[in-house]
Structures are given as C-alpha cells and as structure tokens.
C-alpha cells in the first residue's frame, strides 16, 4: 500500500512540476517567437535566400532540434554569423538547390562530430571569455536595436557584425538613425521599455508576460498612428509571406540537388558550415548555461548531434543552416523559461503564424520588438557584471574586456578567438609562476636549496624551471623534491636530468628525491565514478 502511495505521490509531483514549468514555458515561447520571427526573415534576406527559408530553419530549430537537444534553454535557428558564408556559397555553387545539399552534408558532419565526442571542446573556453561574449552580445543588441527603436530599419534585424552590408557600421547607423527618426516608433519603443521594466514588478499583473503586453500595445499604437501624419512605413513592420492555400504553401519548399554530390566545392562549403555552426553552437551553449538560474549543464556532444539532425532536416526542406543562437536563447532565459518546451512551442508558433495569422503578425511594429531586445541586452551587460569581473582580478578582467571590444568590432567567432589568446597568455603566465616553490637555508659557507615540485608539472612550466636552475649560485647543495608530483612532463624531466649531469662544473651538488625516469598521465576511471553515483 505504501509503495502504491509512493508511486502515486511521485506521479503527482511530476504533474505539479510539469504544470509549474508550463506556466513559465508557454509565455516565454511567445516572447522567443516574437523575437525569432523578424530575425529569421532578416537573416534569410541578408543571406540572399528565399524569406521562407528563414522561417523553415526557425521552425525546425524549435521543433526538431529542441526535441533532440539536452539543453533546456537553448533556442536554435538561422544565425547572423553564417550570413556571409551562405551568401557566398549560394553564388559560388550556382544554385540554391546545390547549396541545400551542402547544408544536408554539414548536418551529417555535425552528427559524426557529436558521436566522436567533439563537443567537449566547449569545456575549454574560459569563463572570463564566455562572460565577455555575453556582455558583448548585450551591447550589440543595444547598439544594433537603437536604430530600429528610432524607426530606421534600412538594415536587417540581427546584424551582429560591426561593418554592415548597407555600408554603415554600428555607430554610423545610430548617428544616421538620429537624423532620420520616426516619432511613432520612438513613442512605441519608449512606452514598450517602460512596460517591460514596470509590469513585472506589479504582482497583480506579473502573471501576464510583459513582452506580450508590449506587442499588443505596439499593434494598437501603430493602428492609431495610421490616421495621422506620423504613420509607420510598411518596412517598419514585421513582414512574413502570406499564402492563400495548402498548394501554395507546399510550393514554397525546395529540395537539395543530389546530382552535385561529387562536386568538391559542395563538400568544402559543407565542411565550412559544419565547423562554424558547431563552434557558434558550443559557445552559445556554454554561455546560456551560465545564465540558467538553475545552473544546469547541457550535454555538448548531444547538442552537436541535435544540430546535425536539424541541419539535415532543414536542408531537405529548403531551409537555411542553423546554430544555437545566443540572442534567442537569452530572450528565452530572460522571459523565465524553465525547460526545452519553450523552444518547441516557439517553433509551433512560427508554423501556425505562417499558416493562419500572417496578416496579424504583419501588424507588429519592429520598434516594440527592438524594445524587447534592448531590455534583454541590458540584462546581459549590466554594470554589476563589470564590477564582479573586476573584483575577480586582472587575469579575469582583462580577457573579459578584450573579448567585449573584439566581438564589438569584428564578429562573434573572431572576438572570442582574440579573447581566448589573451586568456591563454594569462594562463601561461600563471602556470610559469606556480610549478614549484623553493626554500634556501645556509649552513656555514654552504647554501642549501630545496625545490619542491607541484602535483602537475607541464611543458608550460619548463621555461620558469630553467630560469631558476640556471641562476643557482656556485657551491650550492640542491635538492629537487618530486614527492608531491603525480606527473612531470618529459621535457621538464630532461631539463632536470641535464642540470644534474652538468651541475658539478659549477660546484653544485644535485640530489633528486622521488623523481621517476618517466611519468604516465593518469587515466580517469569513469566506471568507478558512475558506480559511485549509481550507488
């Protein structure tokens, strides 16, 4: 009886958690849908692909990838970081159908990478670089959305690069927007920001998601302004294709051209997409785990497999290549999502909006969507984060700031690469300083020097050890103690043995304590760990 009650209680708990999560995931999915919709269309436009292709990619990223992925907050779809690759590939391969085959092959490569456990690469990105990337994304959102909030929409929503395709850059676009602003857009965006800030603080209203209220207000205000001299231009509104029937809908799909599978250029494009999309996904997953309030860790290898399946499906249906996208994922987390169902629902909303309410969606002003992204950007790059990183020390703060600046003035991957280089410099400097410690004592005219090696002495420590050994004065007794060392790099061992061999020429007597001729890297016994966890 007790057992039955226990099972019943367990089922009740699961239902309660599911219901509780659904209360968060459903409103969050609407927010992500509203953010993702113009992004999908804008990225398709910038990539030189059909607008429908961007929507296909967004739908699959929501429904297919989220269902397979192990990440609870990540949202996938077409990424701005791939626009240059896609635009060049379509022109280079000569047809959109040949490009679709490259997308399918890229997906296959990603699945193979996931099965080969290549996702662990994501674990090697320092937290200071990831935090810097997040802060940079926040600043990019603010800087890039300001023109849209002012009503200037000459460039597509979501252009992350400093130098834009319309021959503007981030700052010149803002300057241009200040001299060409639209009063209606400013009113809508300012009111939207006020609602987004105040609405969640009022307990009686917080059950209704603020971004949904913002969209309703935006539609109403744009309708009111329609009969005045300040009416919004159609390009300042969301625009999705309107289909009149099922036959017209199915006619929008494209199929890959498998006849060009032997073309070497197709495979080069596929490899390029697979590598860039995988790196951007791993960076996004690492970043979104950091802003997850529950601090869950996403399985990166499974994520690569999920992205691969998504790209295979997208290529087969005529969509663009996709990645896990930090902008949408951040909006998802900021809206209070708890599980992957938010991403799945957002994909469903994209599909349903395309089929049933394209007219209503086309009534949404881009200014209110820009307001949502402005507030999201501020949450990512809040002042408290800069203070927190500063207090962690220069070895964390400098890579953090360098990453922000590099991402702002280049793009996501290049900026992170620069941040990584700076972080590696600080890591090397720290490792060089901490391979050992030593103590000097004097007995009469003779000096005794004891050098105690650390647990792990890597190749990075070789230079520092060489400097110390070279500067040991004559007539000194040296003891090199390896009793604490679990591993000493072969190059370091060679340095130590060579010093011992030649030390007599300087009158230095060297004694080695518990230093082996050879060390083997200890293997991690995952079976023992799994057994302990299971027991």
Structure description:
The longest helix has 45 residues, at 2-46. The chain is α/β, with parallel strands linked by helices. The strands form 3 sheets. It has a 4-stranded mixed sheet, with no helix packed on it. A two-stranded antiparallel sheet has the order 1-2. A two-stranded parallel sheet has the order 5-7. The chain is built from 21 helices and 8 strands. The protein has helices spanning 2-46, 51-68, 83-93, 96-115, 127-149, 170-178, 183-198, 210-225, 246-250, 264-290, 300-317, 326-334, 341-356, 358-361, 366-380, 383-391, 394-409, 412-433, 462-470, 490-502, 526-534; strands at 76-78, 322-324, 436-443, 446-453, 456-457, 476-481, 487-488, 509-513. It starts with a helix and ends with a helix. Helix 2 (51-68) packs antiparallel against helix 11 (300-317). Helices cover 62% and strands 7% of the residues. The radius of gyration is 29 Å and the shape is elongated. The protein has 2 domains: 24-73 and 84-412, no CATH class; 434-513, 2-Layer Sandwich (Transcription Regulator spoIIAA). Keywords: Membrane, Transmembrane, Transmembrane helix. It comes from Pedobacter duraquae. This is SulP family sulfate permease. Residues 22-391 form the SLC26A/SulP transporter domain. The chain crosses the membrane at residues 26-45, 51-68, 75-93, 99-116, 123-143, 177-199, 206-225, 266-285, 305-327, 348-377, 397-428.
């Amino acid at each position: 009886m007790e057992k039955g009650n226990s099972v019943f209680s367990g089922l009740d708990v699961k239902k309660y958690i599911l219901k509780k999560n659904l209360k968060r995931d459903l409103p969050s999915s609407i927010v992500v849908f509203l953010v993702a919709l113009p992004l999908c269309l804008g990225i398709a436009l910038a990539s030189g692909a059909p607008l429908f292709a961007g929507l296909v990619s967004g739908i699959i990223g929501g429904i297919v990838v989220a269902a397979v992925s192990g990440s609870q907050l990540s949202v996938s779809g077409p990424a701005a970081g791939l626009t240059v690759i896609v635009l060049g590939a379509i022109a280079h391969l000569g047809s959109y159908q040949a490009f679709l085959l490259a997308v399918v092959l890229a997906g296959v490569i990603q699945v193979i990478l996931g099965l080969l456990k290549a996702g662990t690469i994501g674990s090697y990105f320092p937290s200071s670089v990831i935090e810097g990337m997040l802060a940079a994304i926040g600043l990019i959102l603010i800087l890039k959305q300001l023109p849209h909030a002012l009503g200037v929409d000459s460039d597509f929503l979501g252009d992350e690069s400093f130098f834009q395709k319309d021959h503007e850059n981030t700052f010149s676009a803002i300057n241009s927007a200040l001299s060409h602003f639209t009063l209606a857009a400013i009113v809508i965006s300012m009111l939207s920001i006020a609602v987004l800030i105040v609405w969640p603080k009022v307990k009686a209203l917080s059950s209704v998601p603020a971004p949904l209220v913002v969209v309703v207000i935006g539609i109403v205000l744009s309708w009111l302004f329609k009969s005045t001299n300040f009416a919004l231009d159609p390009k300042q509104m969301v625009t999705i294709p309107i289909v009149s029937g099922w036959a017209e809908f199915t006619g929008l799909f494209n199929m890959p051209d498998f006849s060009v599978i032997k073309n070497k250029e197709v495979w080069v494009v596929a490899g390029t997409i697979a590598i860039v999309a995988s790196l951007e996904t791993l960076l996004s997953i690492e970043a979104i785990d950091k802003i997850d309030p529950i601090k869950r860790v996403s399985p990166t290898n499974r994520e690569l497999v999920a992205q691969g399946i998504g790209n295979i499906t997208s290529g087969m249906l005529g969509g663009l290549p996709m990645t896990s996208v930090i902008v949408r994922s951040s909006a998802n987390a900021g809206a209070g999502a708890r599980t992957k169902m938010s991403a799945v629902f957002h994909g469903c909303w994209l599909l349903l909006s395309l089929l049933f309410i394209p007219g209503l969606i086309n009534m949404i002003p881009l200014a209110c969507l820009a307001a949502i992204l402005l507030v999201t950007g501020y949450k990512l790059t809040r002042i408290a984060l800069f203070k927190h990183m500063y207090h962690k020390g220069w070895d964390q703060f400098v890579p953090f700031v360098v990453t922000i600046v590099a991402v702002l003035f280049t793009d996501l991957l290049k900026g992170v690469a620069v941040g990584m280089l700076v972080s590696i410099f600080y890591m090397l400097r720290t490792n060089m300083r901490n391979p050992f410690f030593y103590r000097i004592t004097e007995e009469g005219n003779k000096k005794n020097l004891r050098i105690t090696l650390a647990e792990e002495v890597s190749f990075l420590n070789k230079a520092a050890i060489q400097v110390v050994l070279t500067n040991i004065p004559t007539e000194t007794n040296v003891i090199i103690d390896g009793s604490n060392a679990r591993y000493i790099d072969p190059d370091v061992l060679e340095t130590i043995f060579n010093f011992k061999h030649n030390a007599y020429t300087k009158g230095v007597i060297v004694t080695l304590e518990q230093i082996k001729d050879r060390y083997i890297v200890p293997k991690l016994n995952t079976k023992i760990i799994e057994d302990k966890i299971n027991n």
